[in-house]
Every structure is written in structure tokens, then in C-alpha cells.
Design goal:
alpha/beta; six-stranded parallel β-sheet; 6 strands; globular; binds 6-O-phosphono-alpha-D-glucopyranose; binds magnesium ion
């Protein structure tokens, strides 16, 4: 029997494929600033806060700007991103996610969201998934982005469990590191070549059963 009481889901790239919208929006900014931004570069931005992402992007493009300009760029990126996500609906929930969540509910395992996105609530509402979560920790509730464990530790605290009773589902290298820093086992969603530090890595949720919670 697994001792897991809570499953903590990252949002972007785990529950929905918004990672692609973040990528398109950052790529658009890079192109306006006159440099290329690749999918491989984008791996460094996954799970990272908006301003930290911008700083990494500008480092890649070898550009320096003052704080005021950077805030303007971050707002531009977010406006484009919001434009993309307002067109989302339930059909964008990644395959197998809802079935797995229903399985967890049947077993009385709690479901939490652990995302540093400030747009998380608006996405969950758009895809009609808000009510599936027993706890929602998003970018409006934490001050430290992943790999800091704050977002996951807050979820554990809110649901009154210890970190070892949680498992984190993550698509980002920084998110897997945050799980390690939180002392929680992790399931990487994506490629084992990228998510090298995850306890397990799967391509997605289709066909997932409770054996995934055995470590
Ligand atoms: C998630 C995504 C990141 C994004 C961050 C902040 O962690 O993986 O790519 O930068 O959230 O998102 P926000 O919606 O607040 O800009
Ligand atoms: Mg993610």
C-alpha cells in the first residue's frame, strides 16, 4: 500500500498544454527584440516565474535593459499569453488527467495544485477543473518560484500532511528540483533525457493507475 495522501499537480505542461502558449509568447518577444529563442532554450523557463523567465530570455539574447523596460516586456508577454489562454476550454485538458484525478478521488487521495503561475485560477476556471482541487497554491500565494519548494510545502501544509506523504507531478526541471527540495517524490511528465532527477518519468497520464504512487 502506498503511503501517499496527496497528489500535487503542476499546471502548465502537466494538466494543460499551456507550456506551448508560454513558449509562443516568449518567442514572439524574443523576435521583437531581434533574436532567436528555441524550444531547447524554453526548457529553462518551464516552472520559472515570469520575471525570472524574462531575465533568462534576455541573457540568452545577450540583451540588457533597465527595470522599467523589463516590466513593460513582461507585461507584453503576459498580454499575448492571456490572449491565447482565453481561447481555451475543457478540450485542452491533457489526455488521461481527469480519469486519473477521478481515480484519486475514489481512493480518498487529495488533489492539490502547485504552480507559480499568476494565471492559474483563470485557466482552471476556463477548463472547468477548479472544483477537482482540494488545495490550490498558485503564483499569487507564493513569493519564491521553483526550484524553491515553497509552492509544494504550502500545499502539504494546507492539507495537513507531511512532505513524504505527497507526490509531485511535474514537466519542468525546476519543478522536479523543487520536489527534491521539498523532500517529496516526483513523477516527471515528459522525457527522461530532460527530467533526469525525477523518481519516475512517464509520457503522460493515459492509462495511469495507482501503482504510479509506489516508490
Ligand atoms: C509556470 C510556467 C512558467 C511561467 C510561470 C509563471 O511555472 O511553467 O513557464 O513562467 O508559471 O506564469 P505566469 O502565468 O504567472 O506568467
Ligand atoms: Mg509546468
Amino acid at each position: 500500500m502506498s503511503k501517499i495522501k496527496v497528489c500535487i499537480f503542476d499546471l502548465d505542461g502537466v494538466v494543460v498544454d499551456t507550456a506551448k502558449y508560454h513558449f509562443i509568447a516568449w518567442k514572439r518577444l524574443a523576435s521583437e527584440l531581434g533574436f532567436e529563442f528555441t524550444a531547447l532554450d524554453n526548457e529553462r523557463l518551464k516552472g520559472v516565474s515570469r520575471m525570472d523567465s524574462l531575465n533568462i530570455l534576455l541573457e540568452i539574447g545577450k540583451k540588457t535593459y533597465d527595470e522599467e523596460t523589463k516590466i513593460k516586456f513582461a507585461a507584453m508577454k503576459n498580454n499575448w499569453y492571456v490572449e491565447y489562454i482565453t481561447r481555451m476550454d475543457e478540450s485542452e485538458i491533457l489526455p488521461g488527467v481527469k480519469d486519473f484525478m477521478l481515480l484519486l478521488k475514489k481512493e480518498n487521495i487529495k488533489i492539490a495544485l502547485g504552480s507559480v503561475s499568476k494565471n492559474a485560477m483563470s485557466i482552471l476556471n476556463r477548463i472547468n477543473l477548479t472544483e477537482y482541487f482540494d488545495s490550490i497554491i498558485d503564483g499569487t500565494k507564493v513569493s519564491n518560484a521553483k526550484p524553491d519548494p515553497e509552492v509544494f510545502l504550502n500545499a502539504a501544509k494546507e492539507l495537513k500532511v507531511i512532505p513524504e506523504e505527497c507526490v509531485v507531478f511535474e514537466d519542468a526541471v525546476s519543478g522536479i528540483q523543487a520536489a527534491i527540495n521539498a523532500n517529496m517524490p516526483s513523477v516527471g511528465i515528459g522525457s527522461p533525457e530532460i527530467l533526469t532527477k525525477a523518481n519516475k518519468v512517464v509520457a503522460g497520464f493515459v492509462g495511469m493507475d495507482l501503482s504510479i504512487l509506489e516508490f
